[in-house]
Every structure is written in structure tokens, then in C-alpha cells.
């Protein structure tokens, strides 16, 4: 049996074929159009936690955490008044943006700030205001930063970096050589 197509039905068949092809490809073109390539609005907002380990030349062991709210670091606001003067300060939220690490016999605790970027598949952040107990009039501090690769970007956001973090200690504000590297492994732990 031979089926004959009328010339007018050819464009209709082509249109149906293109519509089917378009719907089978829908959703497979990569990340969504929201901030930092997120798949949905607020995908990266939440609380993240990571372990810090390894280290060279000194052993670095600890944890870090950071929070994101509307794509930016989570903040807290303090208001104080003295007489007729009111002062308001905005800082990173210390309950979500922190690091605690052990280096060369001292424990340093400080603040973090970080960003998740799905377009570059990276998590980048800074460690600052790390303070350890003073010794014989010496103020012991530490600061640094990290870069990690996103290893899971959809249901569970995970990241890791092999010797991609750096932290340097200081005494009385003067950096102490050498610069230490560390590895990290983390994930989004809450909203």
C-alpha cells in the first residue's frame, strides 16, 4: 500500500517533528538562568560546613562553615547606644561564618566569607580574624583563604579541594613563615 502525502501536509509534519525534538531536549541545556547559574532561585542559599585537613608544611586540622542568604554572606546587625548616639554595625553572622583550626599546637578561631559559583564549578572563600590564646604578651592570629571544586551541584551541593586552601599564622600582626596549605571537603548542611 502506498501512502501519498499532499504537499501542504509536509510543513505540518516538519513542524510536529521539530516540536517533539524541542520537548525532548528541554531542560538539558545546563544550569538555569538565575544568579551564579543556579537551577532555581535561592538554590545556593543555606549553611555549609567543611572539614580542613592535611597540611604542608604544618598539619592543619579543623572545620569551617559559611552561610549564604540571597546569594550573599549571611550577616548580623548589632545596635548600641551611648547617650544620644546610636551605632549600628553589620558583620558576617558568627554562628554561620566561622573557622576553628589547630596549627602547630595552637587553636585559632575566626570568621569566614565565601561564595558558591555554579558557572565556574567553584567555592571560594576567605578566613580572617583568626585568634589563638596569647602567649607571653604575643598575640597569635591566622588568616587565609580557599578554593574548592563543586563535586555535587543539584540535590546535595558538595565541594572539595586537595591542597587548595592556605592559612598563615602571625605573631603581633607579623606573618610567620611558611604559608601552610590544607585540603577541604564539605557540603550544604541546611537552609
Task: Describe the 3D structure.
With 191 residues, this protein is mainly beta. The protein has one domain (35-190): Porin (Beta Barrel). The chain has one helix at 9-25, and strands spanning 46-56, 60-69, 72-73, 75-82, 85-92, 98-103, 106-117, 122-135, 138-152, 158-171, 174-175, 180-190. A hairpin with a 2-residue loop joins strand 8 (122-135) and strand 9. The longest helix is centred in the first third of the chain and has 17 residues, at 9-25. Residues 23-29 have low confidence and may be disordered.
Q: Tags for this entry?
A:
9% helix, 12 strands, 59% strand, mainly beta, Porin, two-stranded antiparallel sheet, 191 residues
Rg value: 25 Å
| CATH topology tier name | Porin
Q: Which class in CATH terms? A: Mainly Beta
What sort of overall outline do the alpha carbons produce when their principal axes are compared?
flat
Average residue-wise pLDDT? 84
This entry's quaternary arrangement is single chain
Could you spell the SSE succession in H and E letters? Answer: HEEEEEEEEEEEE
Strand order of the largest sheet: 1-2-6-7-8-9-10-12
Helix content: under 10%
* Poorly predicted sequence stretches spanning 5 or more consecutive residues: 23-29
Please identify the structural class as seen in this structure. Answer: mainly beta
Distance between the termini: 64 Å
Domain tally: 1
Number of helices: 1
Amino acid at each position: 500500500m502506498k501512502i501519498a502525502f499532499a504537499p501542504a501536509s509536509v510543513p505540518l509534519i516538519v513542524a510536529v517533528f521539530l516540536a517533539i525534538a524541542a520537548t525532548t531536549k528541554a531542560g538539558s541545556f545546563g544550569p538555569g538562568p538565575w544568579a551564579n547559574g543556579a537551577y532555581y532561585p535561592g538554590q545556593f542559599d543555606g549553611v555549609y560546613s567543611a572539614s580542613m585537613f592535611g597540611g604542608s608544611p604544618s598539619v592543619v586540622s579543623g572545620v569551617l562553615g559559611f552561610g549564604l542568604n540571597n546569594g550573599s554572606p549571611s550577616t548580623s546587625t548589632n545596635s548600641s547606644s551611648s547617650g544620644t548616639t546610636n551605632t549600628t554595625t553589620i558583620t558576617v553572622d558568627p554562628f554561620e561564618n566561622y573557622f576553628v583550626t589547630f596549627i602547630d599546637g595552637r587553636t585559632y578561631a575566626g570568621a569566614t566569607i565565601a561564595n558558591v559559583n555554579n558557572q565556574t564549578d567553584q567555592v571560594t572563600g576567605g578566613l580572617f580574624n583568626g585568634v589563638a590564646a596569647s602567649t607571653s604578651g604575643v598575640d597569635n592570629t591566622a588568616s587565609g583563604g580557599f578554593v574548592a571544586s563543586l563535586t555535587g551541584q543539584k540535590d546535595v551541593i558538595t565541594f572539595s579541594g586537595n591542597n587548595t586552601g592556605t592559612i598563615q599564622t602571625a605573631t603581633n600582626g607579623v606573618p610567620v613563615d611558611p604559608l601552610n596549605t590544607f585540603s577541604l571537603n564539605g557540603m550544604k548542611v541546611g537552609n
